[in-house]
Amino acid sequence: MLGYINGKVARPKENVKTEHARDTEAWVVRSDLIVKSWILGSITEQITIYVVDRLIYKFPNADFTAKDVWDELQYKITNNGYTILHIAVNSGKNHELLELLLGQIPVNQQLVELKNNSDGSTLLHVAAIVGNTKAVNILAARDRDLLIAKDNKDQTPLAISLSNMHTETSWCLLNHVNTRTEKNTLFAGANGDNLLVLAISSKEFAWPFVRRRVADFDHSKEVLTTACEMICSSIDPSSHHLYFTNPLFEAIRQDAIEVAKEILYKFPDAVWSVNEDGHNIIQLRKYLQHSTWNERT
């Protein structure tokens, strides 16, 4: 099917004898119908209706071609600035269509510039919101700037993915973070602290991995481990306390003991941390246990 779009499927010659002219015309019509059906069948019903209505308005007295459909899909089609690319990422219905659409964008056009007007979400933000891991791989390979792009709320795709509890997608995003610039942007200042708190606060990250066989691959554990390692490797040790204090106490509050152990293993000095009430981790643990006991009795 891609051959009809990229020209690899050759059409019959135009200068043909009269007796073959009808066959040529039939081939063109049939091929065009196939392509239109494939394109429109690869997107949601709502967008299909929108696109077809627009094309009927543009061509009231003539049928529109597959190329007309293709061209229409590249324009912004919603009030908030979403393009068909955003829709394709959001639906996760046809990754082949997504790759094909990306192939139509000029090489000098950065994907990071394609943001919607309302919240500043890039294509990667949309993929992170819905947990479209395959789209994350496709987009990150095309434009690495997407990894550190922030929306209007100063949120990166990784933060969005963590807050939506998409552990596999979060692990995928972390796997694409390779350069020191990317690490510093993601984990510098309060960002790194917030990312770890997000990971621990989510119930997905309560981590029953300790009850599983060691051989089991657990994306949740890998997310925390990788995040801690990135902070260790890219942030000056004298600033590590800025990153582990809140996550550690969040782990204690969530009764995620294995998570707390992981943080203490990566940041041994965290054992001396105190929270805003002046409690260390042992005191907080005892306080929470006492409070829970009182609630039950």
Automatic annotation (TrEMBL):
InterPro entries: Ankyrin_rpt, Ankyrin_rpt-contain_sf. ANK repeats lie at residues 80-102, 119-151. The keyword Iron does not apply. SUPFAM superfamilies: Ankyrin repeat (SSF48403). It holds the Pfam family Ank_2. Keywords: ANK repeat. Signal peptide: none annotated. This is Ankyrin repeat-containing domain, PGG domain protein. It comes from Artemisia annua.
